[in-house]
Amino acid sequence: EVQLVESGGGLAQPGRSLRLSCAASGFIFDDYGMHWVRQAPGKGLEWVASISWNGGARGYADPVRGRFTVSRDNAKNSLILEMNSLRLEDTALYYCAKGGGSSSYYPFDFWGLGTPVTVSS
Amino acid sequence: DIQLTQSPSFLSASVGDRVTITCRASQDIGNYLAWYQQKPGKAPKLLIYVPSSLQTGVPSRFSVGGSGAEFTLIISSLQPEDFATYYCQQLKNYPLVFGGGTKVEIK
Predict the structure, then answer these.
(1) What is the per-residue pLDDT for B56?
(2) Tens digit of pLDDT for each residue in A23-47?
(3) Which residues of chain A lie closer than 8 angstroms to B98, CB-CB?
(4) B106: how many CB neighbours lie within 10 A of its CB?
(5) Which of A31, A9, A38, A30 is nearest to A21 (CA)?
(6) Which of A57, A80, A101, B99 could form an S-S bond across to B4 if both were Cys, CB 3.0 to 4.6 Å?
(7) Residue A3 CB: number of other CB atoms within 10 A?
């Protein structure tokens, strides 16, 4: 059974950093692209970042490019999102999602439950 | 960047109704479009990727149409468990944007 469990969310002040993790199990992790998607309270889904199976290709949404870094540790079946220079508008529930193939261009076929991030002074 | 526009943003319908949700892309994306369902307090669920068949467990009352820049998600006979918010997503290139969502509520 595929499982994705996010952690690392919490309260941070503007300008500070947080590191989100996603522990994956139930599938061959290094066969698939992985993704981060966020959802602000009461709002729709917003794609944040993606990484291919070996980390060789990464993509970022414009609002986070240069501040967020997506990475993966295939030996530990783990997806990471380093978030720096946090802004109030980064407040959201952050989902980890598995792609349906090795590149980033497959639909997101399994999702975690999300980890909440609140940016507030 | 590609933009996706869903319509309507809100839909009120009755059990048994046929429901059509439209997703328009700002440019041709071929068939690289997926549809997701999200219920309150839950993670999104992949319903269908246009080039493929329905995801395992998704009822056959869900179907998709279109290609290029206009797509539809059709629910042939709305059931109580279908009341949710539906999102389209383009997967042709970065950024992998989602549409704004269509909330389907009970009339």
Answers:
(1) 87
(2) 999 999 999 999 999 999 999 999 9
(3) 37, 44-47
(4) 11
(5) A9
(6) B99
(7) 13
Kindly identify which residue of chain A lies nearest to residue B48, measuring between CA atoms: A107
Check pLDDT > 90 for residue B33.
yes
Please indicate if any CB of chain B lies within 8 Å of the CB of A104: yes
Residues 6+ apart with CB under 8 A from B60: B54
Q: Among A2, A65, A94, A105, which would you mutate to test the B interface (most chain B Cβ atoms within 10 Å of its Cβ)?
A: A105
Judging contacts by C-beta atoms under 8 Å, the chain B residues touching residue A110 are 46
Q: State how far residue A37 is from chain B, nearest Cα, in angstroms.
A: 10
A46 touches chain B (CB under 8 A): yes
Model confidence pLDDT, tens digit, residues A42-88: 999 999 999 999 999 999 999 999 999 999 999 999 999 999 999 99
Residue A106's pLDDT is what? 92
Longest alpha-carbon distance in chain A: 41
